[in-house]
Amino acid sequence: MSRQISALILGLSMAAGCSDPAPDTSPATGAPASQVASASGGMVVSSSEPAARVGADILRAGGNAIDAAVAAAFALGVAEPTQSGLGGRTQALVWSPSTEPFGIDGTTVVPIGAPREPVTAEDGYSVIGIPGTVAALRRLHESGGVLGWADVLEPAIALAREGFALSEGEANRLEGIAERLSLSEGARGVFLTPEGAALGAGEVLRQPDLARVLQAIADEGSDVFYTGWIASAMVADFAEGGATVSEADLAGYEARPAIMTRGRFMSLDLVGTYLPASGGTTIEALQIIERLQVADLDPDSRAVAIGDALVAAYADRELARSDPRPPSEDATWITSPGRADEWAADIRADVAGDSPPVRDESGNTSHLSVMDENGMIVAMTQSLGPTGGSRVTTPGLGFLYATTLGYLDAVEPGERPWSSQSPLIGLREGRPALVIGGAGGRRIVSAIVQTLVRTEIDGRGLEAAMSAPRFHPTGRWHFEQLDETIEPAGAAMARARGHSVLVRPFEYYFGRLNAIAVLEDGSLVGVADPRWPWGVAIGVDRGG
């Protein structure tokens, strides 16, 4: 089976030249047609064309949504190595008609031997934590995959071994960090030419070391990564380079069940994951917005109300840091109808208060949305942190490590730093309606919220909702960052409150989402965010 899948993937990649999506456009928005797809069976939406094709071909080969998501996630680590990979962190969310929804938390962990004083470096060995992605993908596959473990890894192995042409986006990101990559012997040997330059768009990137590592994981499972020869190579390199991850840290790592959170927005029953992820924050903001009845507000008031609701939800997330209650209780509290009522009343009364600005986070992350013909859904968000993460690769292993220490909010040794990853599933009358998630740090939450306001309150289709302008709040009771294509709504009112308004281009600063909607007739529409021209939605028809 694995050779059959590999041949299919490589044939499609070579036929397409492994290049950027074809420039055919949608007459409605001018977006590349490959960013929007319809299907009667399954759907895969990814920020990377090779990864999306891997997931779709796994569905065609008889795999379910879990198989497709795991295969595409490993392929993402090959095709977008600056965004996600074996050295990173993962949040996965699953729903199927036959099981209760569940999530898997594969967040990186602060090593036990990490210094208690804040790490100030932006990259290098000192920022490396314990990787979680391999354990998370293994646990996800064991939870319900129907193809063999080796089968779902084979496409990524082939992609790494045979190579692929770099997209313009990935080539630009590698060029932007080439100077930092050159400081790591391992990264320099993989991602740069002998002269120290990054490969350009369209040039072929082959990763034989990564192919060997992936093959070992396929043959021996995740144990080889955490306790076998791969772990030994990592620990030896960490000791020499100054990382604090130990042999015991790796051996003790566990991808654990995520804390689940639920809520309701309009007719959607929402399911997400809570700390260290931010699904509860997304749900809370939406519930506050519903109570503010924004459909009845003028454009200025509506925009400000949405911004206020977002910052209110961020404020409750910060409260959790000093809350003695278990996170599972916090998840229930922040998504309760009563809490949304309290915030809505305060916002209507314009009750303001002092708080620090909303902390920003880097937007370099990957999100996969997958659905199969039986209605199983997987929403998965993966990240290295800033572009290229730590910019460190262990010689002979071929992958970059995420930034953990000094990047996300300070935590103690052994803890999992929080992030804004927010994979989300929406059900309507108990049936799948939506799967969505994205990249963009804090702008993941604001992008999802504004998209769902447009689909559920305004009645727009998914493509139109994701193509619409966005804004992002940066402090309590105000927002300062607006998409340059946004209507004047809210800008004048924000300025009247004494806040500056920073206008940014229509670009992926405002988040980049990958989503799937289920239409009334049961067909699927997949949309890759138009802000990210390299994203792809690929549909699989029933029987196809």
Give structural notes.
The protein is of the alpha+beta class. It folds into two domains: 2-20 and 51-257 and 375-383, no CATH class; 260-362 and 424-540, 4-Layer Sandwich (Glutamine Phosphoribosylpyrophosphate, subunit 1, domain 1). The protein contains 19 helices and 19 strands. The strands form four sheets. The chain has a seven-stranded antiparallel beta sheet with strand order 1-18-17-13-12-9-8. Strands 7-4-3-11-10-2-19 form a seven-stranded antiparallel beta sheet, with helices on one face. The two termini are 18 Å apart.
Q: What would the principal axes of the Cα set say about the shape?
A: globular
- Strands of the widest sheet, in order across it, are 1-18-17-13-12-9-8
Structural class: alpha+beta
Quickly count the domains.
2
Tell me the β content: 15-25%
Return Rg in Å: 22 Å
Give the termini distance in whole angstroms.
18 Å
Q: Which ranges are low-confidence, i.e. pLDDT below 50, for 5 or more consecutive residues?
A: 1-33
Largest sheet: 7 strands, antiparallel
Helix content: 25-40%
Strand and helix map with partners:
Layout: H1 2-15, E1 36-39, E2 42-46, H2 49-60, H3 65-79, E3 89-96, E4 99-106, H4 133-142, H5 149-162, E5 164-165, H6 168-176, H7 178-181, H8 185-191, E6 204-205, H9 208-220, H10 223-226, H11 229-241, H12 247-252, E7 256-257, E8 260-265, E9 268-273, H13 279-291, H14 299-319, H15 327-334, H16 337-348, E10 365-371, E11 377-383, E12 424-428, E13 431-439, H17 443-457, H18 462-467, E14 471-472, E15 481-483, H19 491-496, E16 502-504, E17 512-518, E18 524-528, E19 536-540
Parallel strand pairs: 15-16
Antiparallel strand pairs: 1-18, 2-10, 2-19, 3-4, 3-11, 4-7, 5-6, 8-9, 9-12, 10-11, 12-13, 13-17, 14-15, 17-18
Helix pairs in contact: 1-2, 1-5, 2-3, 2-5, 3-4, 3-5, 5-9, 13-14, 13-16, 13-17, 14-16
